[in-house]
Amino acid sequence: MNKIFNPTVLILALAAAGLSYGGYLLGTRAGTHGMAGAVSASVSASTAASASAQQQATKAASKAAQSGGDKIDPATGRRVLYWHDPMNPGQRFDKPGKSPFMDMELVPVFAEESASTSANAGAASEADTDDGAGVRISPALRQNLGIRYATVRHAEVRDALSLVGTTQFNENATAVVQSRVTGYVEHLHARAPMQAVRRGQPIATLFVPEWLAPQEEYLELRRSGNDALATAARQRMRALSIPDTLVAEAERSGKAQRGYTLTAPASGIVTELGVREGAMASPGMTIAKISAVDKIWLLAEVPESLVPSVSPGMTVNASFAGAPQRSYTGRVRELLPAVNPASRTVQARLELDNRDGALVPGMLMQVRLEGASGQHRLLVPTEAIITSGKRAVVLVADQHKGIRPVVVTPGREHGDDTEIVSGLEAGQQVVASGQFLIDSEANLRAILPKFVPKAEDSMPAKGGMK
């Protein structure tokens, strides 16, 4: 038998299902809101408790400060000297509270932290602190930091400069070989520049046609026995610049000499050749230039700021890389009257002893110039000076005030030492190594003089509780 579909039953079933799903959604949302409320209530309670505890601690510290007694940190029970802002540690505050510089709570500085920087912990007076007491370094800390002291001393120093120079020939010791007559270069004995020659060594042989006839006449008169005419002929040859050596050779051989040899007037190096074989030489023409090497010049570059320290006559010691153990001595001849616009230096012309001929032109040499007399100067090790660009500071070790910075005016360096123009006295002890570690320690504890305000400069904190 067929069943008849009833629409009413279907509608009722759908309505029942919708009601059931709606109830499920309502129950889920209610449970979620309940959990969130519980968590929020827990966080609020914790924050309120923390804020209450902080306010109570601040109130307790503030009351202790106002009562005139010791300032005690209620959280740790330690005695507080003052409060400060870590972002601005130079300013002190006499009570806790908000920083006037940053929106943050002030940080206490405890008594034992300040006392630990003194060798007599807890016994240093407040007057010593305000007077710029220095850093106290225990023997153990001194050894750990590698601190080394040096004594300020007077010493006799000479004005010495370290310069660089280049060697060149001594122009004052240059000889010139010239032709006095018109002739032709038959043979050139010195065939290339930079050839070493000795005094009297042949340089060039000239053929002088106009000397042949006077020689023939003189020899004929000698053979005829007419001494008066022979003497007159000899005088005419001298007027023609015929050398006596050439005449003597003609007398010995009985023949007119066609060649005349020019010799080196001094030992040295041929720096210039003015002719070649077969060339014609005229009167006054330079055949060759010869420079002596027993005395050689050295041109040293002197910074223009140091020119007043250099004067003629100063002693010179020079060396070069090829023989650093060998020292060449000499003196300053003169300062050349010109400044190099590129390097801002002035050339000093020095003269060195080069008897062994080891020095040649163009060599680069290290030069040390020393003054004629020494002067007493106040010296400290160069490593003891701390330079910031605007000033120079030396850490002085004082048995009463500890290690403290002193501004000095440094002078010139003398080896490993530096001259002190002002700021120190002889006999003082200065820190020669480990200065930067001491400086860091002092800055962390804010005890370097003039960097930490005095106690009376303390100001009330922003929002400090009364």
From TrEMBL:
Organism the protein comes from: Rugamonas apoptosis
Sequence ranges assigned to domain Heavy metal binding in this UniProt record: 82-109
Keywords attached to this entry: Transport
GO cellular component assignments: membrane; outer membrane-bounded periplasmic space
The protein's name: Efflux RND transporter periplasmic adaptor subunit
Ranges of residues in domain CzcB-like C-terminal circularly permuted SH3-like: 379-438
PANTHER family associated with the record: CATION EFFLUX SYSTEM PROTEIN CUSB (PTHR30097)
Pfam families noted in UniProt: 3HB_CusB (PF25869), Beta-barrel_RND_2 (PF25954), BSH_CusB (PF25919), CzcB_C (PF25975), HMBD (PF19335)
SUPFAM superfamilies noted in UniProt: HlyD-like secretion proteins
An example Gene Ontology biological process: plasma membrane copper ion transport
Source superkingdom: Bacteria
Keyword match Membrane: no
Transmembrane domains' residue ranges: none
Domain CusB-like barrel-sandwich hybrid: 175-290
MF annotations from Gene Ontology: transition metal ion binding; transmembrane transporter activity
Family: Belongs to the membrane fusion protein (MFP) (TC 8.A.1) family.
Location of the CusB-like beta-barrel domain: 295-372
Boundaries of every CusB-like three alpha-helical bundle domain copy: 210-258
